[in-house]
Amino acid sequence: MSAVAAPQASGYNFAYLDEQTKRMIRRAILKGIAIPGYQVPFASREMPMPYGWGTGGVQVTAAIIGPDDVLKVIDQGSDDTTNAVSIRKFFAKTAGVATTTETKAATIIQTRHRIPERTLTEKQTIVYQVPIPEPLRFLEPRETETRKLHALADYGLMHVKLYEDIARHGHIATTYDYPVEVADRYVMNPSPTPKFDNPKMHMSEALQLFGAGREKRIYAVPPFTKVRSLDFEDHPFEVQKFDKPCALCAATNVYLDEVVLDDRGGRMFVCSDSDHCEERRAEGHRGELSGEAA
Amino acid sequence: MTANLNDKPLLSARNLGKHYGQRLGCRDVSFDLYEGEVLAVVGESGSGKSTLLSLLATELAPTAGRVDYRMRDGETRNLFDLSEAERRFLLRTDWGFVRQDARDGLRMGVSAGGNVGERLMAVGGRHYGRIRDTASDWLNRVEIGPERIDDLPKSFSGGMRQRLQIARNLVTHPRLVFMDEPTSSLDVSVQARLLDLIRGLVTELGLAVIIVTHDLAVARLLSHRIMVMRQGRVIETGLTDQVLDDPREAYTQLLVSSVLAA
Q: For B1-52+176-262, which CATH class?
């Protein structure tokens, strides 16, 4: 992954960050892989984008990307939103790498809020943008204390949160950023992906890296690692279910977005993973609204 | 009440002392506490009683002395040799700590049931229904209506908060409970009811209690033995009735005589 000349914007090092910074980030990544789920502090840099727009994910991607990599960036499952488009452009410009919207063609997928529907392979790495890496944050405000709780694997508090959910709503109402236990040890925030995606993290073939720029933390789930969503014996973990298939490609068992069609209550449910939807439509699958909306 | 006199003490402090730099917290405190025994530590503010309690609960590290504790497995260990993990485990299973200000002892943003259930979940309880049943049972035992189980402690009165704190501490059946002025922020009639409740639970569960108070009436009602502290030292110890009815030290005499008779 050494920097080589690439058709990129002049005046910048390969992939924007200087080599020493990338080395520092790679060290944090390696440590994170060695201790699955553990939040490794790193010297997060200022990036040319505001916090909350994926500064952590971008730094992780910059540290691991090479000239031969093919990059895909998604935001809420979609390749065409502002965040995804600008990060893709950023790397096309500063690293001169090939970019794609196809999940299967990508070697690195940077994501905000989704894991692609297509099962990732061992040749792929997924980089999550993380706003709040600390799962205990809203239960225990002191950083010194949360570190201690992680060190001692003292995770009773996490269940207090789930208990409160059930007491208030009758079921576990946490639907995104649903806490998981990694490799029977650390409790981890999976970033604000819907809990629908949690099972995809379990025993994934792909390396999963998490970067939180503002909070200056990197963590990782190595391939083939146990990832268990926390729950109660009598309130087991469940993913969201949808009554209807995707209105465009008729896919079932995928995560759907609700799209408002008019101001008279008209709405449709479509795949949140836009690449998955397009691929299915190219294969000839048709949903009930595909004629008019596609 | 001091049964098991032949047994080894549950907790024994030897020459315990704490200096904050040059300033003295407490010094040369030695005593034994047996199972089922209630010990009151009295003295004016600044006499070192809260420092002593923090030392015993391992919240502070001592500058001198040791505290031996007989664990549930019968083994006696110096508390200050325990690892952080062992200490925390002890704190949430075998011990309880009832604070003067309920806000320090409760999670104010978590419902009453969640507060009581926290310890159960911390020791591995993973069945919502059972945790809730136990929580509801304990709320009942401290005279909080089961319909309040999902209410936040914010909406509770001072007395209820203290009772909730007690339920939260006793749910794992601890053997030793520390109490730091549990009644002092309550008005008199509420105090009386709370003391009654504590006395009942202590007897029923055979708890050992170390209670810090400046209120001699509380000491008389609850404790078997009493330790009078002044300027960081223990100046008098003995059976509660004996010390309060026939104080030996001049300072204790002063304390006893300064109680207002109603």
A: alpha beta
